[in-house]
Amino acid sequence: MFSAFWAVLAFFAVLIFASGGSSRTPRFDLALTGAGIAFIVTLVIAAMLSMSHKENADHLGKGSGVNLSSKRSSGHGGYSARPEAGRPDAQAPDAPDSAPGDSR
Known about the structure:
Strand content: under 5%
Largest sheet: none
Number of helices: 2
Order of helices and strands: HH
Oligomer: single chain
Number of strands: 0
């Protein structure tokens, strides 16, 4: 029905505008050609859109946020300012930060 609607709309639009005014005879050949082209194009576009539809996997609908990892991050996808526990140069979380120039 969607393609038929646009085909009828194209038919009347081409029939009115292709004749060049009310004193000339209507161009049914161009109107039918335009209606056919509009029908085929909208039918192909609707078919392509329906073929491209794919349901999401079930595991994608679970969770309550964007970042579902248990690791803390800086919030915007960049590197964290805190050192991570797995790195050898990491400090303990309760240790005070040392200022530049402090010797410990």
